[in-house]
Protein: ABC transporter permease
Amino acid sequence: MNLVVPSKFASKRRRPWLPRAWRTPLALVGTVIALAWIVVAILAPWIAPHDPLAQNLPRLAPPSADAIMGTDVNGRDVFSRLLVGAQTTIPLALMLVVCAMIVGTIVGAVAGYLGGWVDEVLMRITDMVMAFPTVILAMVIAASLGPSIMNAVIAGIIVAWPPYARITRSLVLGLRTQNYVIAGRLLGSSPIRSLARDVLPNIAGPVLVLASLDIGTAILLLSGLSFLGLGAQPPTPEWGTMIAAAMQNTSAWWLGLFPGLAILSIVMAFNFIGDSLRDALDPLAAREREAEAPTAVSAAAATGEVAA
Structure:
């Protein structure tokens, strides 16, 4: 006997391969732009039409068929330098965020799990770092270490880890009293094993959301330090140094426009991804926002009916 399943029940079994949060227009746009820039960063040496350091083109030439984004004051192709600059900026920004996330997560987890004087000492150090404006402190550290791109990354890590420590500590404080954590300790788990096995996997979501949102901030920070002469040094292709060079030739509009658009696009892309990741890892918040939208529409419709 053949069993016929109604179409309305069959349709419920087919689930989309992407979560709802990743099927929004902003999520798709952000993912496409971010992946495109990552591919560019990997393939930059092979797809750049000119040597980014070669000074064999006309100086300050506007965009043309030979140089689609023009040339700089030294006769270098702006488009080639923009592509190779992605290979400098994006990987270093990712490394900055990953290192800051690791340091901050360890500090916050230890402080929240152990408590007592350990918590007080670590949190006061965190407060001391957060008391200074982020950019100013990064400038001071980079200037003290010496102007270079790696010193700029170190400065960024030093100023970027406290938010991770704060959010990790608050999450650990709420989880360390849960029954499964207490049961693991009673069964003989050491504090380190209990922290690594029972606590940290359950706080990964909010930490990853913060990290995804921080990638854009890291790109802005590294570009800003390079713009001020504390990061990448000429003739290294880097978006911040390219904008700094454009400030000396304001009549050549293409020198600053294209690096600025590159920074804008990659920062917005990772911000879109961070918002989508937050919705994917926190379905309750996403459902609450979706529930509020129809309510607001209904209220507006009711108001319009009353006014009519």
Summary: Residues 8 and 14 are 11 Å apart (CA to CA). The chain has a mean pLDDT of 83.
